[in-house]
Amino acid sequence: MTSSQLFEQIRKKKSYLCVGLDTDITKIPKHLLSSDDPVFEFNKQIIDATHAYCVAYKPNIAFYEALGPKGWESLQKTLNYIPKDIFTIADAKRGDIGNTSALYARAFFEQMNFDSITVAPYMGEDSVKPFLQFQNKWVILLAHTSNSGSADFQLIESKVTGRKLYEEVLLKSQEWGTKDQIMYVVGATQSEKFKEIRDIAPEHFFLVPGYGVQGGDLQTVSKYGMNRTCGLLVNAARSIIYASNDHDFASAAKKESISVQQQMEQYLDLYLK
Ligand SMILES: O=c1ccn([C@@H]2O[C@H](COP(=O)(O)O)[C@@H](O)[C@H]2O)c(=O)[nH]1
User: What region holds the Orotidine 5'-phosphate decarboxylase domain (predicted)?
Assistant: First the structure.
């Protein structure tokens, strides 16, 4: 999917919501456990209930690979079930020496056909470049993450440039590919930094986790993070998919995603440049 197709979906749905499919078999409603593939059954009902209100789905790969081959099968079935006009993100946080990265890229882009993958930029250009060789596929680089440990390395200032490590990531990596190939992870919990981060990468999409259970502020993120093509995909996983853990889990997820979509509609009216 291209950035203009993504923006078209955002305008059509008046939403920049990404639903996180972090499906934990120990947390899904008990009545699903008797089905052949409880994880897929849960995801299927969540997708049916939420697809009209979101523009992206982000399965975190850890939740599937922890289940072994059966988990990979549930993941592939989920991916095949997602409507084709919805952007898909493999939250896998990969990145290795070039020849290994090339195989990660083939796994997620060719075998599974995800639109995008999250990548840790720590190993530098040759570890990221192999992911950029695929047409209409995206690399989503970790820039300033939502967790408290993000301060440990990402905020270290270079003695040479005076810039923080996450600022160096944002600046340097823009030389490796275009705004139609690279997005950045910026946590919603870092909302006070969105203005300066947007100034460093004015045109790129940001994937914004950390809203919902982690407490990030949607309005501040939207006010300072939005650009001419929205430029934001705000992710919520647990607050939507576990809105209820009973028979009504899908309708509760629908209600929660409608509520987020309605706020996003207002913010698109207010802040789209
Ligand atoms: O900085 C980051 C990068 C990735 N994540 C991932 O996003 C979701 C958040 O889930 P919630 O339930 O909405 O908190 C999860 O998959 C994380 O691994 C992140 O939170 N922060």
Answer: 16-253
ipTM over 0.95? The verdict is yes
How many other CB atoms are found less than 10 A from the CB of residue 66?
10
Q: How far apart are CA 49 and CA 109, in angstroms?
A: 26
Could you tell me how many residues make up the chain? 273
- Going from the Cα of 66 to the center of ligand 1, the distance in angstroms, rounded, reads 17
Residue type (1 letter), 141 = L
Contact predicate 20/233, CB 8 Å? no
| Pocket lining: 209 vs ligand 1, CB cutoff 6 Å | yes
Q: Count the neighbouring beta carbons within 10 Å of the beta carbon of residue 224.
A: 17
Output DSSP code: residue 146. Answer: S
From 14, 44, 93, 223, the catalytic residue: 93
> What's the pLDDT at 273?
79
What is the DSSP track for 17-75? EEEE----TTTS-GGGGGSS-HHHHHHHHHHHHHGGG-SEEE-BTHHHHTTTHHHHHHH
Terminal-to-terminal C-alpha distance of the chain: 22
User: What are the structural domain ranges in the chain?
Assistant: 3-271
Is 14 labeled as catalytic in the residue annotation? no
Q: Which amino acid is at 3?
A: S
Three-state secondary structure call for residue 130: helix
Per the confidence metrics, is the pTM higher than 0.95? yes
